[in-house]
Amino acid sequence: MSDIVASSVDAPDSTPSASILSAASRPIIEATLPVVGEHLGDISRIFYRQLFDNLPSLESDLFNRTNQANGEQQKALAGAVAAFATLLVTEDAPPVDEVMSRIAAKHASLGILQVHYDLVHTALFAAIVDVLGDAVTPEVAAAWDEVYWLMANSLMAQEAVLYEAAGVSAGHVWQPMTVLGKREVAPGVWTFTFGDTQPGAMMNCVPGQYVSVSVVFPDDTRQIRQYTVVWGEWQDTWEITVEAVRGGLVSNRLIDDVGVGDPLVVSIPVGDPYPIREGNPVVLGSSGIGSAVSVGLLQRLVSHGDIRPVRVIHVDRRPELFAHGDKLDELLSVYRGPSSFHTEYADDIEHAVSRLRDGKWDRAADVYLCGSPNFMRKMRRVAVREGVAPTNIHYEVFAPDSWLGFD
């Protein structure tokens, strides 16, 4: 079976494609999807072992070691190709490139290049052959190879656009910054203000975007995490908010070891900017440190002199845990349009969110959510039940298995 894998390693030209599966491959993918799905766990395990054996620095410097340890990354990446294949053979599926935009943005924030797709391809197909054996005929291998490169080319084309828009060459996304301010905004939650000493080095960030932060450890390994980015409290600065997480490698190192005057290496800002359409009422919903996105969106509305109705909603366990509550109060006090501020506190997120079915939702509103995946799923359901169109609900998620979004 090694000849089957070797024959499929060269990537097709990575130009944008219609992402349409060929007529020859479609019935093969439909027939073999259940088998691949049934064995995803074994394929995942062998795939990662192959990938890290081929290039150990991927494990130490690029992939999230916490998600590797708890198995979340394995479930996510292993299922991505199968989920993508399902899209290709599903009638009336959403446009592939649109669905892939979240993962493309995440990749751009990490500086992913075609060589990474080549490495993944080699390890993935070796794992598939290892697990499925003689079931992987040349025809089956060719069909799944087509699926993989349709997915990879969609991602690479979008990543190229993001690199070009940022004015950087492919993969050169990192920029050194200096921490200019650090303040605790809730117990165990810290906001870092940072900037660059070179005029013009910082590009604009827009509400809904995030940056990756790269942290190097004493053993010279590196870990990367993503944080929502908003305008800083001083001109030409950005801010991120970091919550201490039990066992968190990056969050605790940032909070414990990085202070004012220290360097901070961050990526270009990426992520689909939240569309603020002309005139639509706005609902800003958050839980935990997701309130940073509400701050960013409200900053934009205030700076533009907007007057549309704004409703701010925040859910947390207790009032003292509400990071950025004072900042949101401050912004609402200078907002020129009608506004309301609604908070719900409960240890049970589902119980707190259920109280928001209060008949006060404007059906024409654009709803912007940021918080835990559980919170956003439940808030989305409440908003839809209250009459808001699903297309008017916007969110960003950083969890590794969330690239397809929410139902």
From TrEMBL:
Residues 20-160 form the Globin domain. It catalyses: 2 nitric oxide + NADH + 2 O2 = 2 nitrate + NAD(+) + H(+); 2 nitric oxide + NADPH + 2 O2 = 2 nitrate + NADP(+) + H(+). The keyword Iron-sulfur applies. Gene3D superfamilies: Globins, Nucleotide-binding domain of ferredoxin-NADP reductase (FNR) module, Translation factors. Keywords: 2Fe-2S, Heme, Iron, Iron-sulfur, Metal-binding, NAD, NADP, Oxygen transport, Transport. InterPro entries: Cbr1-like_FAD-bd_dom (IPR008333), FAD-bd_FR_type (IPR017927), FNR_nucleotide-bd (IPR039261), Globin (IPR000971), Globin-like_sf (IPR009050), Globin/Proto (IPR012292), Riboflavin_synthase-like_b-brl (IPR017938). The keyword Cell membrane does not apply. Residues 172-276 form the FAD-binding FR-type domain. Its EC number is 1.14.12.17. Its cofactor is heme b. Belongs to the globin family. In the C-terminal section; belongs to the flavoprotein pyridine nucleotide cytochrome reductase family. This is nitric oxide dioxygenase. It comes from Rhodococcus gannanensis. The lineage of its organism: Bacteria, Bacillati, Actinomycetota, Actinomycetes, Mycobacteriales.
